[in-house]
Design goal:
Elements (H helix, E strand, L loop, with lengths): L4 H21 L7 H33 L5 H22 L4 H33 L2 H18 L1 H25 L1
Keywords: Coiled coil
Organism: Saccharolobus solfataricus (strain ATCC 35092 / DSM 1617 / JCM 11322 / P2) (Sulfolobus solfataricus)
Protein name: Hemerythrin-like domain-containing protein
Length: about 180
């Protein structure tokens, strides 16, 4: 079986896009605050402390060794940092609903276009540069990062987003 490191990242992107879909439709009010905080916690932890670590510490490093310098990788890291700034801003403004909606919208736009660039530009390029052996090495490093993060924790975040997705998205499409 092919241990596809890029596929792993793209599967995580699918979960992240679900979280963004929820943030897009969720009403900012007291009742939904807990769920909003859960999603922000997911972005801080699952996305930034696991997914981005795989990209920055492993994949991007590898691509730089392969001669892919500057440009695309620089932009991705810059956007990761911008995302961290937005998250910090959101966490400071949970009780200011109007500002919170603006910040969530900024987060959605940034992260959705970021994932689009990775899925459609960076990752296909990466796949063409990696040999099967290199892919395997990267995959194993990803596994180690997940173990450090906590395998169960990783799974729990995915389940949380699926649950919220059922609550906010599937419910909405059933009401139509």
């Amino acid at each position: 079986m092919m241990l596809n490191s890029i596929k792993t990242l793209m599967e995580e992107h699918t979960v992240i896009l679900k979280a963004l879909e929820i943030l897009n439709v969720i009403d900012i009010n007291e009742n939904n605050m807990q769920d909003i905080k859960i999603i922000i916690d997911f972005i801080k932890n699952f996305v930034d402390n696991c997914h981005h670590v795989k990209e920055e510490k492993v994949l991007f490093d590898f691509l730089e060794h392969k001669g892919m310098v500057g440009g695309p990788i620089y932009v991705m890291v810059y956007e990761h940092n911008k995302l961290r700034d937005i998250i910090n801003r959101i966490e400071a403004r949970y009780n200011e609903f109007e500002e919170l909606r603006e910040d969530l919208n900024s987060l959605i736009v940034l992260l959705a276009s970021h994932i689009d660039k990775e899925n459609n530009v960076l990752f296909p390029t990466a796949e063409s540069l990696l040999s099967d052996d290199e892919n395997k090495v990267i995959y194993e490093k990803f596994e180690r990062i997940e173990e450090e993060f906590g395998k169960e924790r990783h799974e729990r975040y995915i389940e949380l987003i699926d649950t919220l997705y059922g609550r906010y998205i599937n419910k909405k499409s059933n009401e139509r």
